[in-house]
Amino acid sequence: MPRRWLNPTAIAAGVLLLAVLVMAVVAPIVWSEKADAVDTDQILQGSSAEHWAGTDSLGRDIFARVLVATGLSVSLALAATAIGISVGIVLGTAPMLFGTSPAGVRAGRLVTAFVNILVAFPGLLLALFFAVVFGVGATGALLAIGFASAPSFARLVHTLVAGIAERDYIAAARIAGVGRVRLLVRHVLPNIAEPLVVNATMAAGGALLSFAGLSFLGLGVQIPSYDWGRMLGEGLGGIYVHPSAALAPGIAVIVAGLAFNLFGEALARAVGLRNPSARPHRTPVAPAVSTSDGAAVLAVEGLRVSYGAVTPVRGISFAVGRGESVGVVGESGSGKSLTALAVARLIEEPGHVSADRLEFQGEDLRQPKRAHRKLLGTSLAMVFQDPMTSLNPTQRIGRQLAEVAEQHQGLNRRSAWARAVDRLRAVRVPDPARRAKQLPHEFSGGMRQRAMIGMGLMGTPALVIADEPTTALDVTTQKSVLELLRELREREAVALLLISHDVTVVRQVCDRVLVMYAGRIVEELPAASLTTAARHPYTRALVAAVPDMDTPRDRPLATIAGRPADPAALPEGCAFAPRCPLADERCAREDPPMVAGVACWKAGAVIAPDLQKRSEAAS
Amino acid sequence: MADGAWRRFALRRTGRLLVSLWVLVTASFLMIHLVPGDPVRAALGMTASADLVAARRQSLGLNDPLWLQYWHYLRDLFTGNLGDSMVSGLPVADVIGDRLPATASLAGLAFLAAVALAVPTGVGMAILTRGGRRRWAETTYVSGSVVLATVPDFLLGVGLVAVFGVQLAWAPVAGRGGTATYVLPVLSLALGLAAVLGRIVRVEMVSVLDADYIRTARAKRLKARTIYLRHALPNALTATITVAGLMLGALVAGTVLVENVFAWPGLGYAIVQSILSKDYPVVQGIVLVYGIGVLLINLVVDVALALLDPRSTIRES
Amino acid sequence: MSVLDFDRVTVTFGRHTVVRDVSLAVPEGAVVGLVGGSGCGKSTLARAAAGLVPLAGGRITVDGGSPRGRISMVFQDPYSSLDPRMRIGATLAEALPRRTPDRKSEVARLLDLVDLAPDRARMYPHQLSGGQRQRVAIARALAGDPDVIIADEITSALDVSIQGTVLNLIRELHRRMRLTVLFISHNLAVVRYVSDTIAVMQEGRIVEHGPADDVLSAPEHPYTRELLEAVTP
């Protein structure tokens, strides 16, 4: 955690903010006398060695006054922020505290609606309103800025609370009988503290600037007190003769405002966004076994995908024949989806793809060429997991299909649209002419996935790569989508590369299965022999761990000890060894090569029942 | 179905507008009553005679019961009567009519300038820095825009006056006249806004470029231009418009300060003078105008959003 | 005699009726499986039983009385069901009844029940794997000594190699403690593996309910047949 803090911007912002706060405390004590010393011989002087920023109309040193004003400016800003946050938290948490009774819900909605109306008005307008109501002066301005910032805080708190309130741990605590106030204090507030602190820091900067504004207008701090805004207002009148009187307090405002804002940004970065600062670099390509033949649609050898130092796909080789259906199974983190994206040349920086061979339809895809665009655009179809997010939400379905034909087949708008409607019909979207005009959100999940498949059929695909195409769908819809894929294969002789975590799905659709673990293919076998003739202990466990309709109910399911391998921390030797009941010293030392379709030193060995179950301590 | 959704959206939105208007009108009515002490005494000063104060109270109707005053206030509003200034005696409606064009043209031009600056830079930076590339460019852009956004518009105004008005004497620094007088006030309002907006455009664009449907578009091997302009930009704009609308509201309020820097003869200059001289009818009138302006902007934003992203109308219902 | 009883329960969200007139009994010591597609209302029914969603009609009772405090629940997503700011021990202790004498040893006992080492009590959720978190959630559900446990899609968010351990745990706890469980899942094979009786839900209604073997071998409702066809190659 602390390492994330150590970037130059964060440190600089922290130091700056600390300096501002220290100055706010120290300056009034140290320089007050100098700042108030009237010297009528030195009225309105420019900057000199004695007076760095010159003197004002009473001959007082402006630089000293700017330093001393830090105290009032910063403390007023902090006080206003405190008022804003307190009122904001009260208003923002009120709907939750009112509870779920009908009366409580109504009261909560009323508060929220009121806050929403106030939030629509800009803070400065609210501040002006309150400044009139509370009267001109420092106290009036303090209350004005405090209350003016309350609605946006209330809205923020409300949004954050609503987000947390949906979490299951809140539901669990409510079921356990935890009361509303306790729920708020123990579960909600600690979990919204971080964004709240970040926003409060930035709001303090905002309050500082607002104060400067009000005082500048003459509505804030009044003579004889002075803050930066007041000094600015006084200095502006004489800006032609004496610009430093206006510029010095102006610079102070900006520096202090920046200190709060930059520190807030740094905080936000530290608690929120964590951008991996990965840089692609080449990793040595391991020699791989060739499994391809001349008739293959897709031939891959020694494929690697790396993100910085992490290599989630570690040199895999496989081929997909014309019209063949190949499944790739594995758990999350096994690299199966990255394999699909890499083959389709869809990995973007900072990801890095390398391969000894990557051929699609006999074309070498390793060096990007202009001609590849058309080839891939018409002959390679992709179907992704989540049809909800994979279609552009603001474009009509028909348009999204038609543009493929416009860009790759040179069709005009009208005939491209006609082809889109025809393709929707081909994937059995009912009433395609009307449906084409609809937006994705008007389609059901299964229909959207059909539309995705139809999009791939705009050209004449030789290969469909489907990455978990049915995972987001209902079982019954799942079946019809799989059937559609199967039918296309038969009708159009399209090859299929189906990526799935679900052994059952792969068995239903595929001829051949590749089992992936930790970025390697560990076994390759006919789909039909998955349950009967698997030789890798991982494949066997994977099949046995998933109950199907024939699993005996009186016996415990097979389990695999430990967690799936972390691509960032792979063990030496076989990556599965730490979880494998058969593993011995050699497995832990040497990575097994792929031999006759399986990469395991113990391939085919019998797993004794007592070895199968492992205690939790092993994980 | 779509028609029904639109009708519900229109009903709901109109309802909210009316409630907000009512809150605004009531707040501006109450303002004069929330002021501590006697507003008339405050306005006329300590030296005014008791008779004069009483007479003025009578003419303003301040001695009537509150509900009757409220009724009169609402009735007058409908007839366009905003009362008279306590200082100059001029009708408030005339004061506003005189000054509104100056403020509206300033805010409008500043907003256009900000959008014209922010959208291209934001989109460009997003394409250059997505997925964590060109970290230095991202850092420079983000820190630069934080600094620019932190400098409040009126301080930027003071700075611009000092440099371009005083040192270089390139542009006039006060008053409203020809095109040249617009340059500095518009710039001081637009630059900070452009910085904030540009950052939002970039962030939105980066997150849209990361979306699944952009991957789909890339899988279709569309031209880069098609992917960026037809698939990414419309989706990035929805969030941008929301924020831009909020900021346009803030911009309207921001004119208050900038007008005072440049002695711009607009509403902002007038409201501050009126607050200081406790000329409450004028303050009430100008607060109303600002508030209505903000509400109208919000309405336009919501309608634009509904047109761009039809899901938003349906999702809410 | 049944412990958890849904009597003509209806739940509405605004104008949408999510659960329609559902009657279902969960007998003491039994595991009742509830299966259905997404959006069929099965999770809403669970949340209604736990008192998280108000009823629009009907009654839910435990032993003929109020279900308040007698039902506990295990959720789908082990990443959102534990408070990230609370140690495992505190999460478990919070679910214990107010007057539990030795909370510390009770927490240790709960962890032991779900095969977790006692030192896990000092850890935060992010230090545990998905499967381990789900076990903590199960331990929390056991803490109040509830009459009924509702398990809502508890294996759907887990990796296939992990879901087996969680299913085994549910089965074993049921065998050892005679737990009464309402087990909800979209996966027919998973429901079949743990349940004595199976109820099939579609569009807010229970369309079929009976002993697991009968429902699976001789499905009566067309939707049940459709579900079965979908999982058999």
From TrEMBL, chain A:
<keyword id="KW-0547">Nucleotide-binding</keyword>
<comment type="similarity">
    <text>Belongs to the ABC transporter superfamily.</text>
</comment>
<keyword id="KW-1003">Cell membrane</keyword>
<keyword id="KW-0472">Membrane</keyword>
<dbReference type="Pfam" id="PF00528">
    <property type="entry name" value="BPD_transp_1"/>
</dbReference>
<feature type="transmembrane region" description="Helical">
    <location>
        <begin position="142"/>
        <end position="165"/>
    </location>
</feature>
<keyword id="KW-1133">Transmembrane helix</keyword>
<dbReference type="InterPro" id="IPR050388">
    <property type="entry name" value="ABC_Ni/Peptide_Import"/>
</dbReference>
<dbReference type="InterPro" id="IPR013563">
    <property type="entry name" value="Oligopep_ABC_C"/>
</dbReference>
<keyword id="KW-0067">ATP-binding</keyword>
<dbReference type="InterPro" id="IPR003593">
    <property type="entry name" value="AAA+_ATPase"/>
</dbReference>
<feature type="transmembrane region" description="Helical">
    <location>
        <begin position="239"/>
        <end position="264"/>
    </location>
</feature>
<dbReference type="GO" id="GO:0005886">
    <property type="term" value="C:plasma membrane"/>
</dbReference>
<keyword id="KW-0812">Transmembrane</keyword>
<feature type="transmembrane region" description="Helical">
    <location>
        <begin position="12"/>
        <end position="31"/>
    </location>
</feature>
TrEMBL record, chain B:
<feature type="transmembrane region" description="Helical">
    <location>
        <begin position="17"/>
        <end position="36"/>
    </location>
</feature>
<dbReference type="InterPro" id="IPR000515">
    <property type="entry name" value="MetI-like"/>
</dbReference>
<keyword id="KW-0813">Transport</keyword>
<feature type="transmembrane region" description="Helical">
    <location>
        <begin position="286"/>
        <end position="308"/>
    </location>
</feature>
<dbReference type="GO" id="GO:0005886">
    <property type="term" value="C:plasma membrane"/>
</dbReference>
<feature type="domain" description="ABC transmembrane type-1">
    <location>
        <begin position="100"/>
        <end position="301"/>
    </location>
</feature>
<dbReference type="InterPro" id="IPR035906">
    <property type="entry name" value="MetI-like_sf"/>
</dbReference>
<feature type="transmembrane region" description="Helical">
    <location>
        <begin position="232"/>
        <end position="258"/>
    </location>
</feature>
<dbReference type="InterPro" id="IPR045621">
    <property type="entry name" value="BPD_transp_1_N"/>
</dbReference>
<keyword id="KW-1003">Cell membrane</keyword>
<keyword id="KW-0472">Membrane</keyword>
<dbReference type="GO" id="GO:0071916">
    <property type="term" value="F:dipeptide transmembrane transporter activity"/>
</dbReference>
<dbReference type="Pfam" id="PF00528">
    <property type="entry name" value="BPD_transp_1"/>
</dbReference>
<dbReference type="Pfam" id="PF19300">
    <property type="entry name" value="BPD_transp_1_N"/>
</dbReference>
<keyword id="KW-1133">Transmembrane helix</keyword>
UniProtKB/TrEMBL annotation, chain C:
<keyword id="KW-0547">Nucleotide-binding</keyword>
<keyword id="KW-0813">Transport</keyword>
<dbReference type="InterPro" id="IPR003439">
    <property type="entry name" value="ABC_transporter-like_ATP-bd"/>
</dbReference>
<dbReference type="GO" id="GO:0005524">
    <property type="term" value="F:ATP binding"/>
</dbReference>
<dbReference type="Pfam" id="PF00005">
    <property type="entry name" value="ABC_tran"/>
</dbReference>
<dbReference type="InterPro" id="IPR050319">
    <property type="entry name" value="ABC_transp_ATP-bind"/>
</dbReference>
<protein>
    <recommendedName>
        <fullName>ABC transporter domain-containing protein</fullName>
    </recommendedName>
</protein>
<feature type="domain" description="ABC transporter">
    <location>
        <begin position="4"/>
        <end position="228"/>
    </location>
</feature>
<dbReference type="GO" id="GO:0016887">
    <property type="term" value="F:ATP hydrolysis activity"/>
</dbReference>
<keyword id="KW-0067">ATP-binding</keyword>
<comment type="similarity">
    <text>Belongs to the ABC transporter superfamily.</text>
</comment>
<dbReference type="InterPro" id="IPR003593">
    <property type="entry name" value="AAA+_ATPase"/>
</dbReference>
<dbReference type="InterPro" id="IPR027417">
    <property type="entry name" value="P-loop_NTPase"/>
</dbReference>
<dbReference type="GO" id="GO:0055085">
    <property type="term" value="P:transmembrane transport"/>
</dbReference>
<dbReference type="InterPro" id="IPR017871">
    <property type="entry name" value="ABC_transporter-like_CS"/>
</dbReference>
